[in-house]
Design goal:
single chain, 1 helix, 4-stranded antiparallel beta sheet, mainly beta
Length: 339
Amino acid sequence: MKKLILFSLTIISSFLLSQKFTIDTLLTDKISIRAIQLWDGKVWYAGTDSKFGYVNLKDKSKKKQIKLSDKKLQFRTLAQNKNSFYAINIESPAYFFKINKKTLDFKVVFNDNDSTAFYDALKFTDNNFGLAFSDPSVNQRLNISQTRNGGSKWIHCNDCKDFPYLEKGEAAFAASNTNIASFGNVIWIATGGMKSRIYRMRYKDSDWKVFETPFTQGTSSKGIYSIDFYSETNGIAVGGDYTKQPDNINNIATTKDGGQTWQIQASGQNAGYMTCVKFRPKTKGKEIVAVGDQHISFSSDYGKTWTKISEEKNLYACEWVDENTLILAGKDKIVKLNF
C-alpha cells in the first residue's frame, strides 16, 4: 500500500508540474518569427522585413533590433557558432548573412541564385561544421550548402550525388528551423508533402541514409514539421497538416534506433498540428513540449500521451533555456514560459 501511495503521488506531482506555469511576454513587434537562438542571456531572432535582434531574458527593456537588408527579406533560419550568427532568407536569391555576436556587424558571405532556392533550415553542429538545405529543384535532391570552416566559406550542391533522391512532391517545411537535428556527429533532416521521411548523415563522411516513416503524408501540406533527438538513438517527430490544423492522426512519432524505424504515438489523442518540438532538459527524454499555431502541449512519457497546457496562439518556434524555462516565438511576439 505504501508503494502504491508513493506511486500515485509521483503521478500527481508530474501532472501538476505539467500544468503549472506562467507566461511572460518578452517582445511585441510587427514581425513573424520562425527561428530563434539563445546566447549570452538573450533570445536572438530573425524574422520578416529583414529584422534581426535580441531581447534580454531577465530584463525585457534591454533589447536591440537591426535590419540586415533594405529589401524586405523573410528569415526562417538562424544558427550560431562561437563567434557569429548566420541567417538565410527564403526565396531566391538566398543571401547567407554572417553577423558578429559582439559588434552585430554583418555581411553576406554566400549567395544561392538558384531559381528554386527556398531555405528551410540551418544548423551548426560545432564551431566549424554547418549545414543548410533548400527545397529541391528539378533534380529531385535537396539543395545542400555546407561549411567546414566556421561559415567563412560555403560549398553549395544542388545535385549532390551522395544525397538520396526525393520522391516527386517531397520537400521540407520552413516552419521553425527545427526539421533538422543533430546529436554527436549525426544529423537528421525531416521531409513532408507527398512523402514524409527521415534523412540521416554522419557529417564527417556525408554518408546519407533515408528511412520511411508511418507519418501522415500524401499532400503538399502534410508531414513532419519538427524533430528533436536527446541521444543518437532516441528522437521524436511532430507535424500534421497546416491547412487542417485540428487533424491529429499519425502526426507524432518516436524512434529508438536513430531514425531507422518510427512508432506512431497518441494518434487521434493530441491537440493537432505542431510546428516545433523539444525534449525538456534533465528529464532523460521523458518530458517533451510541442507547440502549434493553436496550442502548447506537454508529454511526460516520451510522447505516448499529451496534455494541452495552453491555447496560446500563433507560436511557431521553441527553445529551452533550462529545464524550467521555455522560450516561444511566433507572430508579433516572443514569450517565456516559467514552469
